[in-house]
Amino acid sequence: MSSSRPSSFLGLDRPHSDAPHAGYWVVPVPYERTTSYQQGTRDGPDAILRASAQVEFHDEELGVQPARAGIHTCPPVACDEEPEAFCRNLEAQYAAWGADRHVLCALGGEHTVTVGPVRALAARHSGLGVLQIDAHADLRSNYEGSTHSHACVARRVVDVAPVVQVGIRALSAPEARFLRDCDRVRTFLAHEASDDLPARATAALPELVYVTLDIDGLDPAEAPGTGTPEPGGLRYREVLAVLREVARHKRIVGFDVVEVRPLAGSTVTEFLAARLVYKMIGYIETRGGTVTPDWPLPPLE
Description:
Shape: globular
CATH class: Alpha Beta
Number of helices: 8
Number of strands: 8
Strand order of the largest sheet: 2-1-3-8-7-4-5-6
Largest sheet: 8 strands, parallel
CATH architecture: 3-Layer(aba) Sandwich
């Protein structure tokens, strides 16, 4: 691991952070316009990058160094627009990057960040589905005057891709009615979690998957740094079990980690988020631990 303040994810140096070599691009998106409770998600991407410098290159579960696949960190995305325009512009940026050459990981920012990448990838990949790990259903048609609020993300996403939700434990009555009538959303409520959740969630997804991981999907005992914490959430190992199973049986073509709100005097949540990003890369590269990858880049210390 690197001890310096990172300008790249994990504090990686060349050649492991070079864009042409990288199988993964990390995209900081410090967007915050529709936060409805506690603000601070705009500081999430930088906090995750800082914390990532303390993540070991070697993955103790997989027994490999996923960073050898190459991880490039992009400059932060401009976040000055109103929500709808921001989503359009981020969609265009993702489309221009050409996601077939690398897997893009967005670091939010509020959950509105997810809409643009999903739209771009759904246009590129026919049959894309979305795995949403979250405390909230985010299925409102509009919220506080915006159809592109963080509380409307899944409602906007379902227009272009079916959604499988895991960890949900907060939704409004209109959202519950929408779920009863909509066949494009499959929801696994947090209180219904069981040992076979990873297999059931994976079976509900199509072959191509985008993963959006709202950090409040985890229990606030493990991830307190978020704007709208909800009790009764998933544990870290439960989330890993879902991600590992999905990576083993499906092709993940993009992902994000959003809604990290750094807390003064604590780095617990941003470090957990950085670990989740790196675990995702490791799972994608090794198909959930079942394949030994042949990476082009040399080992790291």
